[in-house]
Amino acid sequence: xxxxxxxxxxxxxxxxxxxxxxxxxxxxxxxxxxxxxxxxxxxxxxxxxxxxxxxxxxxxxxxxxxxxxxxxxxxxxxxxxxxxxxxxxxxxxxxxxxxxxxxxxxxxxxxxxxxxxxxxxxxxxxxxxxxxxxxxxxxxxxxxxxxxxxxxxxxxxxxxxxxxxxxxxxxxxxxxxxxxxxxxxxxxxxxxxxxxxxxxxxxxxxxxxxxxxxxxxxxxxxxxxxxxxxxxxxxxxxxxxxxxxxxxxxxxxxxxxxxxxxxxxxxxxxxxxxxxxxxxxxxxxxxxxxxxxxxxxxxxxxxxxxxxxxxx
Length: 312
Ligand SMILES: NC(=O)c1ccc[n+]([C@@H]2O[C@H](COP(=O)([O-])OP(=O)(O)OC[C@H]3O[C@@H](n4cnc5c(N)ncnc54)[C@H](OP(=O)(O)O)[C@@H]3O)[C@@H](O)[C@H]2O)c1
Hints:
- By secondary structure, the chain is an alpha/beta fold.
- It has twelve helices and 15 strands.
- The chain has helices at residues 11-22, 34-42, 59-62, 80-96, 142-151, 173-183, 202-214, 232-241, 254-261, 264-268, 277-281, 295-311, and strands at 2-6, 26-31, 46-49, 67-70, 109-114, 123-127, 157-164, 166-168, 186-190, 196-197, 199-201, 220-224, 230-231, 248-252, 272-274.
- The protein has a seven-stranded parallel beta sheet with strand order 3-2-1-4-5-7-12, sandwiched between helices.
- Strand 4 (67-70), helix 4 and strand 5 form a beta-alpha-beta unit.
- The protein starts with a strand and ends with a helix.
- 43% of the residues are buried.
- The structure holds NADP nicotinamide-adenine-dinucleotide phosphate (NAP).
- NADP nicotinamide-adenine-dinucleotide phosphate binds at residues 7, 9-13, 30, 32, 36, 51-53, 71-75, 114, 116, 164, 166-167, 173.
- NADP nicotinamide-adenine-dinucleotide phosphate binds next to helix 1 and strand 8.
C-alpha cells in the first residue's frame, strides 16, 4: 500500500517507518530538512520535505495515498495541538477525496492517529479501550482529536487511534531518561515511585501499527502496552543493578517536581494499569513484557544510541 507517514524521524515514527517498510509498503514520509530526508531514505522511505504546521507544504505529497499514519507532534512551538488538528483535518480530507483512476480508486483508505494512555488519567484498576477518558493536563487536547479521527470513519474510510503507553527501547523517552540519570549517578523519582507505567517496547508498538494498517477490520481505539504492570521503583531498581556504580535515588515530592518541571511531573507520577485486549485480538503479541526483566538489554541499546549520537 501507499502510506503517508508523519513523524518518521521521531521515536515512535522511526520504528513505525521500519515496520511499514518491512511489511512491503510504499511509505512517503514528511520530514523537515535534507538531512532528515537522507535518514528516511536510508531506511527505505520516500522523504517529502515540508512542515506539519504548513499544510500546503505537504498537501501534494499526502494526496492519493491508501493510508495515513500520524505519529508527529510539535512539542517546540507551543502550538502542538492546533498544528496537529489542522494536519489531521487535512489527512482526513485527502483520504476522503474521490480518486478518478487507477486500480485502487474504489478501495477503502485508512487514517491512524497516535494518542497515548495519558488520556485515561489515573487508573490504578485495569483500564480497557472503552474506559472513560480523564486526561491529565498534557493530554487535554487528545479526546477532541481522537473523536475527530474516529468520527471521520465512513464506508470508504477506516480510522483507528493507537494509544501507546510509555515507550521504551532504542535508548530514548522516559525510560531512556532513567538510564541517563542512573549512569550520571542520581535518579530523581517523582512521588513515592510505587506508581505503575503502562510500558511498550518501540518495535512491538511499531508492529501494532503495521497490523492495524494491514487489517481491513482494524478500527477504533487500540491500547498498546506490554501489560507488565511495572512500578517506577521496579524499573529504577533493575537499571541501578546493572550499572558498575549504584546511583543514588531521590524521591521528589510531587509539588516540588511540579514547581520545577510543570505538568510533566504529573505524567511521571501517574499510576496506570492498562490492558490492550483489542490489539491482542489482532494477533499482536509483544515480544518484551518488562523493562526491569530486560534491563541489561535495554541498557545496551541505550549505550548504543548514545554512541551513535556521539559519532554522527
Ligand atoms: N514516546 C512515548 O513514550 C509516547 C507514548 C505515548 C504517546 N506518544 C505520542 O507519540 C507521538 C510521537 O511521540 P515521539 O515520542 O515519537 O516524539 P518525538 O521523538 O519528539 O518525534 C516527534 C516527531 O514529530 C516531528 N515533528 C515535530 N514537529 C514537526 C513539524 N512542525 N513538522 C514536521 N514534523 C514535525 C519530529 O520531526 P523532527 O525530527 O524534524 O524534529 C519527529 O519526527 C506524540 O503524539 C506523543 O505524545 C509518545
